Amino acid sequence: MMYSPAAAYEEGYVQYQIPSRPTKITTTFVKQLIAIKDAMEKEIRDLMLSLDKVGVGLKTPLVDDEGFPRADLDLNDIRSKRHRIACLQNDHISLMNDIQNFLYELHEESRANAQPSTTSPNIAQSSSSMDTSNDEEEQLEPFLKVNTVSPNSPAEKAGLHPGDEITQFGYLVKKDIKNNGLKILPTVVQSNVNKPMKVHLLREEGSTKVKKEIILVPSYWSGQGLLGCHFLEIH
């Protein structure tokens, strides 16, 4: 569901214009939303850095030991930035949910278009079946390679190994990456925090590559990121 971001109405800040949902979801539309998401993330980082420069965070008390407002800080500026960050974070969550849903719609539409038609002549059905088979082969083609896995990370707990080749990440397959780029990966990960995701992969065992399926749960842990692993794109 599309929404009007709270952060769009604050004076003195960037006005984010969320486009209305079109009748038909397109890759171009989703890329517009991803660009807005990226801009929100950059603004949040910049605001956090600005607060850090004056020695405060989101929860740092703004009063001294005696309970009086700190005279060494611009309290109005800090409160304004904290409020802006809170609004942006809420909008960011809503926007990521929208992007996740729209990417899923695109993926399902792509799969539906690849299905053979039951009303076409036999020759057309045969051709369509061949196309579907080719599409399935493409979906199984690896598009990410696990480069590193951090100890005690969600990736390690799920059973990911360095060298694993990802053929499906959640609902994403190679065609989705070709159409949308790697930017959609963090969007999908962030939209599935604490939710189980199926990951299909190929793993070398001896001289052969074996198909495997694991359950990966993106989550906050003691290290960086939500997965604790690094991917390399397979072209």
Give an overview in words.
One of its GO terms (biological process) is proteasome regulatory particle assembly. One of its GO terms (cellular component) is cytoplasm. It comes from Naegleria fowleri (Brain eating amoeba). Residues 110-140 are annotated as: Disordered. InterPro entries: Nas2_N, PDZ_sf, PSMD9. The chain is flat. It has helices at 27-53, 75-113, 122-139, 154-158, 174-180, 184-190, and strands at 144-149, 165-169, 197-205, 208-216, 229-233. α1 packs antiparallel against α2 (75-113). It has a five-stranded antiparallel sheet. The two termini are 34 Å apart. The protein is α+β, with helices and mostly antiparallel strands and 235 residues long. The longest helix is centred in the middle third of the chain and has 39 residues, at 75-113. β3 (197-205) and β4 (208-216) form a beta hairpin. The protein folds into two domains: 27-113; 144-233, PDZ domain (Pdz3 Domain, Roll).
